[in-house]
Each structure stands twice: as C-alpha cells, then as structure tokens.
Amino acid sequence: MKKIFILFILMLILCSCSKKEALESSDDSTRVVSLAPNITEIIFAIGAEDLLVGRTSACDYPQEAVGQIPVIGGFGKPALELLLRTEPNLVLQTDLEDEVIGQAIDRIGLTRKRIECSKLEHIASAIREIGVLLDRKEVAEEVAQKFEMEFDRLTTIELKSDRLPKVFVELWDNPLITVGRKSFVSELVTVAGGSNIGDAIQREYFNTESEWVVKTNPDIIICLYMSPTGVAREKPLRRTGWSSVSALVNGDVYDEFDSNVLLRPGPRITEGIESLRKCFEQWQNRQNRL
Predict the structure, then answer these.
(1) Which strands form 195-196's sheet, in the order they lie side by side?
(2) Does position 8 have pLDDT exceeding 60, yes or no?
(3) 84 vs 69: CA distance, rounded Å
(4) I need a surface site. Which of 12, 18, 134, 140 has the fewest CB within 10 A?
(5) Residue pair 15/70 in contact by the 8 Å Cβ criterion
C-alpha cells in the first residue's frame, strides 16, 4: 500500500508540472469532467454536452452521444493521468471512492464541486446547480420544473387498495442483498405505492437471509440485476423454501427493469417510478377483485 501511495504522489507531481502550463494558457471556456453517471445525464439534459471533455466508464447515457466522450476512469474513481489529459477546469462529482484522489485534484488547482444528488429531493436542485455552473441556467430551470411537475403527478396518484403491497427488492442473489430504509431505491418503492420490507433496517443496503424474506412474506419481488444464466426472476422462483411466499404464489416476481434508470438519481428517475408503479398496480387491481 505504501509503494502504491508513493507512486501515486510521483505521478501527481509529474502530471501537475506538465499540465499547469496548459491549463493557464487555455481560454476561459468551461471544460468539465463528470465523475458520476447521473451528473453526466444532467449535463446532457440541460444541453451542456459540448462542455463535457471527460466521463467515467459508468456514464453510458445517452448511449450514442456519450460514447464520443473520453473515459477517465471508473465511477467515483478517476485515473488522475487520464483526467489531466482532458485539460479540464471543472470537475463535478457525487462521492469519490477515495478522497485522497479528490485532494490531489485540489492540489493541482482544478475546481472540484460535489453535487448532492443521493435522494429524490436532491434531483431538481442538482439540475439547477449544474445549470448555474455550466452557464445553462435557463434551460436547467426548464428541465428542473418539468421534472418536478412529473414527480408531483406521480406522487399524487391515488392508491387503489386499502393497504400497500409489501415489496422485497433483490439487488443481488448470491449473497442475497436488498435495500434498507436509507436507500434511494426504498424511496422509489414508497413513491410508486409500495412498502419496502427492508425499511426495518436503518441502512442503505444489507445482506440478508432467505429465511427472513420467507418470514416477512412479500407480496411483490423486484429483481434489479442481470442474471448471467437467464432472466433474473427465475432465481427467486427456483429458490429452495420460497414456494409459499405470496409473490411467488401469485406470480408477482418482476425483472427486466433498466437498473441504470432505477439506481441512478437523475432526470429519468420518473420513468423508473412508472415502471415500478405498473407492477404494483397489477397487484392492487387483483386485491380489489378479491
């Protein structure tokens, strides 16, 4: 670990020496690097993609357009040398995997801004903040207002049953991982008209046991991962001891969601809420017929 740190510092010194002159001699136009996929989506949504000179490997939307932007590392984990090659003067991030990298970026003299966008309530303000930073204030305001109107519409739709369906969100099957009360996905489940059974745990994500899921007996199971051996919903359907779970008995196990939409706090999240709501409405309609 010590050797890696020393090499990192040496690379920092070499890169900073070679890049400072380039940064100082460049014009005043904004050259932005995004270190998070939801930030990248917002940049495109407000029409500021011409300012984007670097992105992470996780930034994959809009697919055709974003493919033209150089990759400078992973989500929250930029490779410093690749980042510097893009000659940015603004770096936008959510959270970094290691704040040491952020400190290195600061020492080089680049402007680094952390955009708070981990909850539904942050999305509109994040759009506006990025709009100000990239001189797209008016367009950003339009995008933010459109998002708020659509979000308000979704949250005011009346429920069609006396109780909310109990929902188990399966993020991964082995080990079995789900979402807790503090997670962004739990918020989505609530807005879409469900009750996340993982809300009993005051965490974002946690490993759980099959026995706990069976005992809690969810009405709906949502699979938010791709299975390399087939469709994800087959995993809980074939799981030993789960045959009596209500979601399996009534056929309310769902997959084929766009996880990049549902797991990414950005402008497209209302699409994710809609996809969840459709699943929940099927259950609610059936309950009303009983």
Answers:
(1) 195-196, 166-170, 220-223, 253-254
(2) no
(3) 14
(4) 18
(5) no
- If one looks up domain 166-289 in CATH, what number appears? 3.40.50.1980
Please give the structure tokens belonging to residue 123.
């999305």
Residue 222 and residue 172: Cα distance in Å, rounded? 11
Do 24-151 and 166-289 agree at the fold level? Answer: yes
Q: Which two tokens stand for residue 34?
A: 């995004």
Average pLDDT of the segment spanning 191-213: 96
For tokens 């209302």, name the residue: 270
Cis peptide preceding 236, ω within 30 of 0: no
Question: Which of left, alpha, beta for 193 (phi over 0: left; psi -120 to 50: alpha)?
Answer: left
Which pLDDT value is given to residue 227? 66
| Two tokens, residue 74 | 């992973």
Query: What is the CATH architecture of 24-151?
Result: 3-Layer(aba) Sandwich (3.40)
Terminal Cα distance for the chain, rounded: 62
pLDDT score recorded for residue 231 = 82
Tokens of 47: 């029409």
Mean pLDDT within 21-48: 81
> Can you give the residue ranges of every domain in the chain?
24-151, 166-289
